[in-house]
Write a structure and sequence with these properties.
By secondary structure, the protein is mostly helical. It has 22 helices and no strands.
Length: about 450
């Protein structure tokens, strides 16, 4: 389908690049900014939410891994849906994934604008948002290997900082250092109630956990530019989720032991961030400044990975004649430059929203991202089911990285994803996205049926 075209892209990403791009995509404002709201929903039982979310995410990655190892092509989601289901499915999945990361990039640059206000309260939010957007776009126009290095080191900063938070929090626990007027200890997990809202809180927190984990699917997007994908992709999938879970659960466990979770739940913004409270407990005067810098780095890293994926998805859609042909142009650095530039232009909508409705834009964009992410994960499970339909028993036995417990795991996970999506409809603050999301999908279907000409089989 695209083998000749795929030669235009460089296979310059090695295992450490792919691993850190996936980690960088999944660790962002979901941890640094939204963790306080998640704790308010579930309390310490949020740890169970992350364990469940991690299990679900692993099966999504395994389903994607099976296909990506067999067909390592760039812009994988739309290409796989096109190949195994139908051209219409490829069109809908491709454009929805592009919208997901267009909106997610808006979330990240919005977060940067919010946190720059901590240092410069009078600075209009749209200015740092625009500067950040320009920086990540330029980064994505560089040589793929250079992009990989930028993504690698920006993700390293996040990981090191999270590890330091865990270590410093552990020191507070073992030395019995007081965090303000509160005594740290594991007992804080149970002293105020392990479940903030019963088991209901555990499940409702899955909507936030899903948003936090969105980004691990970058492993599939990088397949077309990965060296030795047969070995790299399975290795990365087996390691990345364990690393992400350890960082998320380790950090939140330590923070809720060091500081009473009801106090964290009542907070909002940098001044009451769980991370700020942890540093403050150690007596570090510049705690807010440190965490501000880290959150900005985290957002830049995630947005950088999102812009990378958007360029590849538009490139692949163009190859399939489901997007304007100029989007398949490759520059001298072997980068789909036009696709990156178009993605940048649409991300400017996020900057405009920060001018028009700065107060409500963040949560609106987060909820839209969650719905679109659930749709993409569901699409991955369905694509993997379709990919096996024409395979013989002998072909299946030769799969290099087969899906676990197929097909039962696929159907169970699809049911779980539908349940989480329904939770978005129940919560008042996320209900709007349950209307916007389906309208987007119906719009794409109509555009395809009325404006996209399918190639007739020869």
């Amino acid at each position: 389908m695209t083998q000749s075209n795929e030669k235009s892209l460089q296979r310059s990403l090695n295992k450490r690049h792919v691993q850190l791009i996936a980690i960088g995509g999944a660790i962002g404002v979901g941890l640094f900014l939204a963790s306080g709201d998640a704790i308010a929903t579930a309390g310490p039982s949020l740890l169970l939410s992350y364990l469940l979310g991690g299990l679900f995410t692993y099966f999504v990655m395994r389903a994607l891994g099976e296909i990506a190892v067999e067909y390592p092509i760039s812009g994988s989601f739309s290409a796989y849906a096109h190949k195994f289901i139908s051209p219409c499915a490829g069109f809908i999945v491709g454009w929805t994934f592009w919208l997901l990361w267009t909106v997610s990039c808006m979330v990240q640059v919005t977060a940067i604008g919010i946190y720059c206000n901590f240092w410069w309260p009078e600075l209009p939010r749209w200015i740092p948002a625009l500067v950040a957007l320009v920086c990540i776009s330029v980064s994505n126009l560089l040589n793929v290997k250079n992009f990989g290095e930028i993504a690698f080191w920006s993700s390293i900063i996040k990981v090191i900082t999270i590890v330091l938070v865990i270590l410093l929090g552990t020191i507070i626990l073992f030395l019995g250092l007081k965090s303000g007027d509160h005594t740290p200890g594991i007992c804080n997990l149970f002293k105020y109630g392990f479940f903030a809202n019963g088991f209901k809180g555990v499940f409702f927190a899955l909507t936030m956990v899903t948003f936090a984990f969105i980004g691990v699917e970058f492993i599939g997007i990088t397949a077309g530019e990965t060296k030795n994908p047969e070995k790299t992709i399975p290795s990365v999938i087996n390691r990345v989720l364990l690393i992400i879970l350890s960082l998320y659960i380790g950090t939140l466990f330590v923070i809720m032991c060091v500081y009473p979770w009801p106090e964290i739940a009542q907070g909002g913004g940098v001044g009451r961030s769980p991370f700020v409270l942890t540093f403050s407990g150690l007596g570090i005067k510049q705690a807010a400044t440190i965490i501000n810098f880290v959150i900005i780095t985290a957002s830049l890293s995630t947005a950088n990975s999102g812009m990378f994926s958007n360029g590849r998805v538009l490139y692949n859609l163009s190859l399939q004649k489901q997007a304007p042909q100029f989007l398949s142009k490759i520059n001298s650095n072997k980068i789909p430059s036009n696709a990156v530039i178009v993605s940048f232009i649409f991300c400017l909508i996020g900057v405009i929203l920060n001018v028009v409705v700065p107060a409500g834009v963040f949560m609106m964009l987060v909820s839209i991202s969650s719905f679109l992410g659930l749709f993409i994960w569901g699409a991955i499970m369905v694509i993997q089911i379709y990919s096996r339909r024409n395979k013989s028993a002998d072909d299946i036995s030769k799969l290099k990285y087969p899906m676990l417990f197929y097909p039962y795991s696929n159907y169970i996970l699809l049911a779980v994803l539908v349940l989480i999506a329904c939770m978005l409809a129940v919560k008042s603050e996320t209900r709007t996205t349950f209307i916007v999301g389906p309208i987007w999908l119906i719009l794409l279907y109509c555009i395809y049926k009325f404006f996209i000409k399918e190639e007739k089989p020869k």
